[in-house]
Amino acid sequence: MTASRAGAGGSDDLGRIADALERMSPPPATRPDFDCAEAFVWSPSPEGLIPVAEVSRVALDLLVGIDRARDELLANTRRFAQGYAANNALLWGARGMGKSSLVKAVHAAVQAEGLKLKIVELHREDLPSVGRLLALLKESAARFLIFCDDLSFSHDDQHYKSLKAVLDGGIEGRPENVVLYATSNRRHLMPRDMIENERSSAINPSEAVEEKVSLSDRFGLWLGFHPCQQDQYLDMIRGYCAAYDIRIDEAEMRAEAIEWQATRGSRSGRVAWQYFTDLAGRRGVAL
Question: Alpha-carbon distance 254 to 41, whole Å?
């Protein structure tokens, strides 16, 4: 009798524990409506894809000085959208030279050609949840470009292991309808001084950073971005002026733009846009 009551009590306890765990676990993600938008942002908690009504981007022809990277990324993206084989891409190099802008502009250009391609932004801090994201995407007939901006890792950062699920796919393989584009200021996604420090202090220097450094090797397409020359910087501003129909004397624009970049201590596409934004504001033009 006592044993029977104890058994019944134990069963009740297990039931209460199971109910508590079910309440604590996040609800399963609902199947997203991929027809409602062309762009989404992945949210791991609450889990789901947030539609983006309008993507913030510039036109592809306004990106000056990155012709080779533009052509290669556009061709790779076009092949993927057409259903053919395509590489994951790492856009690395100088800050402010249009890496993120190029990804978004290429997506728009491919769509303008009548090809169906969705873009999903994945934040670096959400990489551990990428497996759940892939599970949602692979169930769809659509094709997806996962975009991870400003990707980099510190020496104790384990998020890079989650990234391998997208690049290599593990035992299941990467979904056929998914490709990853990432941007980074670092070619190997980790600081060079950290690479050198780990190599110098390791028993086997060749293995010290192999796992992390080789992560960038898993991107089939590497596109480098380098600081622009003054002529390219001025051409960027001329292109913006033409696109938004802002007229300014060439000598005046040149003098102001050079002074503007001198106060910033650098030249880049971002600095060119910031000067142009100031110019447009002074001329009473809304961008």
Answer: 39
Express each pLDDT in 43-52 by its tens digit: 998 889 999 9
How large a percentage of the chain has pLDDT more than 90?
Answer: 55
Hey, how many other C-beta atoms are within 10 angstroms of the C-beta on 77? 23
The length of the chain in residues reads 287
Alpha helices in the chain (DSSP H): 2-24, 67-81, 99-112, 130-137, 159-167, 192-201, 205-208, 210-213, 230-243, 250-264, 269-282
Torsion-angle region of 134 (φ positive above 0: left; ψ -120 to 50: alpha; else: beta): alpha
Its pTM stands at: 0.79
| Residue-wise pLDDT tens digits, 15-63 | 777 666 666 655 555 667 888 999 999 999 888 999 999 999 999 999 9
Q: In degrees, to the nearest 5, what angle opens at C-alpha 108 toward C-alphas 102 and 114?
A: 140
The string of pLDDT tens digits covering residues 223-232 is 999 999 999 9
Task: Please choose, from the candidates 72, 214, 75, 91, the residue with its C-alpha nearest in 3D space to the C-alpha of residue 149.
Answer: 91
pLDDT of res. 113: 96
> Is the CB of residue 145 less than 8 Å from the CB of residue 107?
yes
Q: Classify 201 in phi/psi space as left (phi over 0), alpha (psi -120 to 50) or beta.
A: alpha
> For all residues of the chain together, what is the average pLDDT?
84
Most distant CA pair in the chain: distance in Å? 100
CA–CA–CA angle 170, 176, 180 (5° rounding): 75
For 210-274, the DSSP string reads HHHHTTGGG-SEEEEE-PPPHHHHHHHHHHHHHHTT----HHHHHHHHHHHHHHHT---HHHHHH
SS3 49: strand
